[in-house]
Amino acid sequence: MKQVLHKIWYQICDNQEQLLKQVPATLNLPQNEINHLTSQPARPIMIKTIFSKQLSIHENLMRFRSTPHNLNWPTLNPSQLIFEKYQLIPVHACSHRVSNCQVQCQECQQFVPCPECACSCSALVFNNVIKCLKCEQVQGLNQTCIKCSQPLFDSSCDFCGCWFALNNEPQVHCQKCMKCHSISHRFCTKCKSCFQEKEFVETHRHVETAVRCDCCKSVVVSDSMKFAKIECGCHICFICACMHRKCTHGNGLEIVEGVWGGLK
């Protein structure tokens, strides 16, 4: 079973931890960074009275920073604070989505973790049939497995064809980039892609002549972003480190170690 690093927010009630937010962290962190984060003790992250369950982690932090409060707030009684920690949680997941189920392709009847891990069928049309990855029970769209009671997903998107995730962060479907994101993303009209709000404001630079990944269509905008120029059979494709297995031409790809480079 795969273990995925999660960021966890909790409060203390009657000397017990009460979960408030649990969201997957970045999936591609080096193991030494994961070990460092999970070894750190929980830290106070904000005052409980300012926290809102309806807001994402990013929005809660922005709200906290913009709200007048005592500068010595970390010294308040623990029952008045929200705490943050990192923890590895076992999940049955692919590299793109954290969920405990697979969805069935309408054409070939195969089960795939998400649209990016799709089968070889040209039309990505999915049945309303999923399979639990813990007990392999095939069933309808149930958020909890009817056989083993494993949580399967807590959010989904009809616009994406079929998209499931275990993610307490509010998700929205962007009609411009045609992907689902947390609500703390912003669409760049020049790059035609969505970026996290923090990245968009602090580090994003517009690309007039964009280099795009031929799998996920993300723009290669960072000098340090890894990408490869690979012949996929009939085309030369730019592939970023998105873990996709097929390019937009439907050809399978094998990324060879050593061909990655930075944007020149």
Automatic annotation (TrEMBL):
It comes from the Eukaryota. InterPro entries: Znf_CHY_sf. One of its GO terms (molecular function) is zinc ion binding. This is Uncharacterized protein. It comes from Hexamita inflata.
